[in-house]
Design brief:
Elements: E1 5-10, E2 13-18, H1 29-44, E3 50-55, E4 59-61, H2 66-69, H3 74-93, E5 98-102, E6 105-107, H4 109-115, E7 119-123, E8 127-129, H5 143-151, H6 153-162, E9 165-167, H7 168-173, E10 179-181, H8 186-198, H9 202-215, H10 220-233, H11 238-248
Parallel strand pairs: 2-3, 3-5, 4-6, 5-7, 6-8, 7-10
Antiparallel strand pairs: 1-2, 8-9
Helix pairs in contact: 1-3, 4-5, 5-6, 9-10
Length: 258
């Protein structure tokens, strides 16, 4: 089914691995199409509670495929960028949380891909950057938009204008990643976090993600209304009744995701 990615599900956690190691996992049209297919599968599978996104070999994703982009005209480049944005937006907005386990180079489109995830964990060997201006380009899959929201406008401008590459420690310092792990511990750490998330009420996690994403860029008054509505509506869910009842009865909750 998939040629450029690996897709596995184990105990409610899906692992999506970009698998073009000879091309440093560069994002071409086929990879983007298969990522969309994989995350559509995540959405459709009620057993999946969290997702880990990583790369095969030395790179997470070393960028968009330059060989493919070099041949594009403006009309074709617009279609390519729209496809990339569609995939990043899908990952950012699906109801289930996505953890980027950044095992190596996350440059250009790879940095944009990890920024679309909810949580980023980096190997000590990971490198991050938006080097597009050095190629006569700009980030085209949301990097100009997500990077300043994550690390601040000044840090984002420095990284994008300079095409500089930073290590995991610097990425952690500026808030681009939430945790740093040794290479041999990276996936285990991602699985640990995914397991903690998967153990929570699925409806509550998905609603929290929705409120955070949709409330981030609106004023506090509008955001307060959005949160109040979401908070109140969740009281009609089976999981809310089960969670509060289990707490009162001093037992472990059994979630139904309804």
């Amino acid at each position: 089914m998939y040629e450029t990615i690996k897709f596995e599900v184990n105990e409610g956690i899906a692992t999506v691995t970009v698998n073009r190691p000879k091309a440093m996992n560069a994002l071409n049209s086929q990879v983007l199409d298969e990522l969309r297919m994989a995350f559509h599968e995540v959405v459709q599978n009620d057993e999946i509670r969290a997702v880990i996104l990583t790369g095969e070999g030395k790179a997470f994703v070393a960028g968009a495929d330059i060989a493919e982009m070099n041949k594009l005209n403006a009309v074709e480049a617009r279609a390519f960028a729209k496809k990339g944005h569609g995939v990043m937006n899908m990952i950012e907005n699906i109801e289930k949380p996505v953890i980027a386990a950044v095992n190596g180079f996350a440059l250009g489109g790879g940095c944009e891909l990890c920024m679309a995830c909810d949580i980023r964990i980096a190997s000590t060997k990971a490198k991050f950057g938006q080097p597009e201006v050095g190629l006569g380009l700009i980030p085209g899959f949301g990097g100009n938009l997500r990077l300043p929201r994550l690390v601040g406008k000044g840090n984002a401008k420095y990284l994008i204008y300079s095409a500089d590459m930073i290590d995991a420690a610097e990425a952690y310092r500026i808030g681009l990643v939430q945790k740093v792990a040794e290479p041999e511990e990276l996936i285990a750490e991602a699985e640990k976090i995914a397991g903690k998330i998967a153990a929570q009420a699925p409806i509550a996690v998905s609603v929290a993600k929705d409120v955070i994403n949709n409330g981030y860029d609106i004023d506090m008054k509008s955001g307060s209304k959005y949160e109040v509505n979401a908070f109140s509506l969740i009281f009609d869910s089976e999981d809310m009744k089960e969670g509060t009842t289990a707490f009162l009865e001093k037992r472990k909750a059994t979630w139904k995701n309804k």
